[in-house]
Amino acid sequence: MASASSGPLSVSPATERDWALVRGWAAEEGWNPGLSDAAAFFAQDPRGFFLGRVAGEPVSAISVVTYDDAYAFLGFYLVRPELRGLGHGLATWRAALAHAGDRSVGLDGVPAQQDNYRRSGFATAYRTARYVGEVPAPDAPVTGVVPAGSVDPAALAAYDNACHHADRPRFLAAWLATPGHRALVRIVDGRPTGYGVVRRAQDEARVGPLFADTPADAAALLDALAAEAREFGSARIAVDMPESNPAAARLAEERGLEPTFETARMYTGPVRPVARERVYGVTTLELG
């Protein structure tokens, strides 16, 4: 039988069951994937996940998830370390990117790949830094924060739509309800002024999104989400904060979180504007 180091590469759609393998690859890269993300990812676009195989053995992966007729997001671009430099990554990239059609495509690129992405037509919009650490318990209970399940779903979806480049009702419904995810909403004068989700992950609990009207709303949510993480056994959290909202980094520093690694948000074309001042933490580097 041919080995994965020789023979032609074939790229085909991946199943949710296949993605358990890819999550393991992402963990080995230090990306700290969420433990239960796949169901929400596949709810958005079940045809947007791809595996490259040689002699039937998986060697590469990528996702190109479509949100609407104008926007898609690329993530999970991975090749097994021992098989890099053989062209498998580029072939997988080209085969999967066709799924986006003529949509503008976004991604969060690690520094080592950004020049390659530029050569493929992506332009940098801003940087994102992952902040990690243990948020101290507040001196007093956090008030004005409630479970997402107690909030009108339409109001929450409208808030999310203002903070993302495309409406994403299928993803949002799954993301809020996935086992192991805790979703909280900040309520002021009877209306949402922010929401966030924390989830179990390979290492530190991941916070995302963290959307809020003001730094005070974001701080209340971050404190409450950190408390939720402690309840399921994770004292440390990680949140990916965009440089495009300087108040996000200030909040992280106030809570004692430290930057670890950075990515660049990049796009191939125009995207729907978002309320950048509300985005304190991106939902996920894998799907935007």
From TrEMBL:
Q: Which UniProt keywords apply?
A: Acyltransferase, Transferase
Claim: Glycoprotein is one of the keywords in the record: no
Which molecular-function annotation in GO is an example for this chain? acyltransferase activity
What is the enzyme's main class? transferase
The segment(s) forming the N-acetyltransferase domain are: 9-138, 143-286
Q: Which Pfam families match?
A: Acetyltransf_1, Acetyltransf_18
Which Enzyme Commission numbers does its entry carry?
A: 2.3.1.-
Tell me the protein's name.
GNAT family N-acetyltransferase
| Species per Swiss-Prot/TrEMBL record | Streptomyces flavochromogenes
